[in-house]
Amino acid sequence: SLLRGADEIGLRKPVKAEFGGGMRSFSCEEDYIYENIENELYFFTSQERQNIIRYWLENLRAKQGEALHNIHFLEGQPIIPELAARGVIQQVFPLHEQRILKRLMKSWVQAICEAQPLDEICDYFGVKIAMYFAWLGFYTSAMVYPAVFGSILYTFTESDQTSQDICCVVFAIFNVIWSTLFLEEWKRRGAEFAYKWGTLDTPAESIEEPRPQFRGVKRISPVTSAEEFYYPPWKRLLFQCLVSLPVCLACLSFVFLIMLGCFQLQEFVLSIKELPRIIRFLPKIVLAVIVTTCDEVYKKIAYWLNDMGAW
Q: Measured between alpha carbons, how far is 114 from 255 in angstroms, rounded to an integer?
């Protein structure tokens, strides 16, 4: 019954190496090609079994004339959602498996300075929960770098305003680089987990129509033999080098100069003791307004560059 349910929902399972390996939607007709198919206790994880059972519950359909107390169902109407809508069923949830839960309690909750058992979390709670804790662990580990660097800067920063401003600029630049590397590394790590846990499906872009902004000449694809729009890669590279790169550098330079100018203005304002206290916050307010305005302008520039790059 579980195998039939897995076939109906298209559950992705690992394939034996001799049959090509990788992940594939389960099929009862070819059940022999999947790993651990011989062992009914280990073929499905706890989360997979619960998914199949939930699928069955949500797809229980009423027969003609079927009724429960004073609730009369239409033929083919889903029973569980109707009962939930009428308040007969308050909630549907699986019970915990105490044996697995105790094992996770020892290897995960009570463990100190040990890697998270992400595969066991995935097997028990599902991919979404496992992916969340994978990201949380990766983020926590990545935060060590700005924490250490920030502590070193704080230790060696002198008490004068100029030294503090320079350290703020250095730390801001470090954070920009760190956040970029963090996101790119997580994309790789997330894709690795998605492939490992069978959720890395064929990208939607492969079956979508080309972007409306795309321009080019029609040709017959040498790969698929289908008609497609073609734009020479050397033209796109030329646009990136002569337009995209200079525009991005100009935008970054402008923001950097504005930031330095606001720091200089801040130092000048603080040097005048007679000014009201509220005036001392003026450079920071100006910087915030400029950054917000630049964000909107740069977004439009990014859209324009992206559209032009598709030509």
A: 42
